[in-house]
């Protein structure tokens, strides 16, 4: 009886941790998507300096959530996102709008990919 109760409690603890981490990853991805849309508007308006400062905020957001997210996600997926955000800020410093657009869309793609990985479906389970 005691082993059954411990097993149930561990299962509930695991499920609550997965639920919390899943919600935090999805909210991080939503936050990144909003920031990338703002950066894209500034690049389109040729406000490279504003876009650069927003890209630094994006980079800080990703780095601040590195510990919690890296526990739950694959390091490779999260490192790809971090590397692209770093490239984005570098391209914006040099005022290269074509490469900045490319890097920005890669950040968006990686963010969408991370959100799709969090969806509970048969493809992600198997």
General description of the model:
The protein contains six helices and no strands. With 126 residues, it is mostly helical. The chain has a single domain, classed as Four Helix Bundle (Hemerythrin (Met), subunit A) (Up-down Bundle). α1 runs antiparallel to α2, α1 packs antiparallel against α5 and α4 runs antiparallel to α5. It starts with a helix and ends with a helix.
Short description:
This protein is an all-alpha fold and 126 residues long. The protein has helices at 2-44, 48-64, 66-72, 75-93, 97-118, 122-125.
Fold topology:
Layout: H1 2-44, H2 48-64, H3 66-72, H4 75-93, H5 97-118, H6 122-125
Keywords:
6 helices, 126 residues, Four Helix Bundle (Hemerythrin (Met), subunit A), elongated, DUF4363 family protein, mainly alpha, DUF4363
CATH topology: Four Helix Bundle (Hemerythrin (Met), subunit A)
Report the C-alpha radius of gyration, rounded: 18 Å
In round numbers, the mean pLDDT is 88
Identify the overall geometry.
elongated
Tally of DSSP β-strands: 0
User: What is the annotated CATH architecture?
Assistant: Up-down Bundle
Helix content: over 70%
Assembly level: single chain
Largest sheet features: none
CATH class: Mainly Alpha
**Which residues sit in consecutive blocks of at least 5 with pLDDT less than 50?**
none
Tally of alpha and pi helices: 6
Domains counted in the coordinates: how many?
A: 1
Strand content: under 5%
- The ordered string of helix (H) and strand (E) elements is HHHHHH
Q: Give the N-terminus to C-terminus distance in angstroms.
A: 32 Å
């Amino acid at each position: 009886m005691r082993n059954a109760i411990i097993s149930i409690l561990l299962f509930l603890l695991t499920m609550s941790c997965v639920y919390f981490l899943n919600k935090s990853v999805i909210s991080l991805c939503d936050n990144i998507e909003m920031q990338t849309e703002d950066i894209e508007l500034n690049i389109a308006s040729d406000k490279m300096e504003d876009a650069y400062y927003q890209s630094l905020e994006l980079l800080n957001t990703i780095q601040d959530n590195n510990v919690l997210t890296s526990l739950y996600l694959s390091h490779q997926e999260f490192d790809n996102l971090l590397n692209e955000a770093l490239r984005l800020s570098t391209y914006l410093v040099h005022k290269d709008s074509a490469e900045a657009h490319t890097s920005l869309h890669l950040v968006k793609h990686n963010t969408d990919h991370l959100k799709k990985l969090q969806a509970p479906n048969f493809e992600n389970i198997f």
